[in-house]
């Protein structure tokens, strides 16, 4: 007799937790890069660093954040695990920057359908401030079914109901 397989839950749990940790670290670093470094002030409250030095530190922290995201992608690709769509929406594909609204990206809702007459054609456009790339997502619209799966409306008989009163 063969051994019964036990349901152990999520496979590759260690790899998922490592990818999650790397994402959280990159998010922390990206947010930290936007704040004034705590070591920028001395004991008297005066600025110990010049503006150029602060910008240089911020760039270094942003680059570290991008490097951590690159490592997270490498881990998930090597282990062949899928990242969630919500996680993928928050990362720029081209420069590996975490998209923080107002800081590293800006978003606009566009509707390019005949002057915006079709409300179901709204598209959320997220533009990365680092590389300038734009990602587009449909807003609150379910995907249209394939043409073969769509139901066609039955043709109404012509002449019925219009102008015919009592059959005369």
TrEMBL record:
GO cellular component, one term: nucleolar ribonuclease P complex
EC number from the UniProt entry: 3.1.26.5
Pfam families given in the database record: Rpr2
Gene3D superfamilies tied to this protein: 6.20.50.20
InterPro entries listed in its UniProt record: Rpr2/Snm1/Rpp21 (IPR007175)
Annotated coiled-coil segments of the chain: none
Disordered as annotated region, ranges: 139-168
Keywords per UniProt: Hydrolase, Metal-binding, tRNA processing, Zinc
One GO term of the biological process aspect: tRNA processing
UniProt GO MF annotations: metal ion binding; ribonuclease P activity
Origin: domain of life: Eukaryota
Similarity-based family: Belongs to the eukaryotic/archaeal RNase P protein component 4 family.
The name this protein goes by in its record: Ribonuclease P
């Amino acid at each position: 007799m063969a051994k019964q397989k036990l349901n152990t839950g999520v496979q590759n749990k260690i790899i998922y937790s490592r990818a999650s940790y790397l994402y959280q670290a990159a998010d922390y670093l990206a947010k930290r890069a936007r704040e004034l470094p705590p070591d920028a002030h001395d004991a008297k409250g005066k600025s110990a660093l010049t503006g150029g030095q602060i910008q240089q530190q911020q760039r270094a922290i942003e680059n570290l954040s991008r490097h951590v995201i690159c490592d997270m992608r490498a881990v998930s690709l090597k282990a062949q695990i899928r990242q969630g769509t919500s996680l993928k929406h928050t990362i720029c594909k081209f420069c590996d920057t975490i998209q923080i609204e107002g800081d590293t990206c800006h978003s606009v809702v566009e509707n390019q359908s005949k002057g915006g007459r079709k409300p179901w054609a709204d598209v959320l456009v997220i533009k990365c401030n680092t590389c300038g790339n734009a990602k587009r997502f449909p807003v609150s619209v379910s995907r249209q079914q394939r043409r073969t799966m769509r139901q066609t409306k039955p043709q109404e008989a012509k002449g019925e109901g219009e102008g015919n009163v009592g059959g005369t």
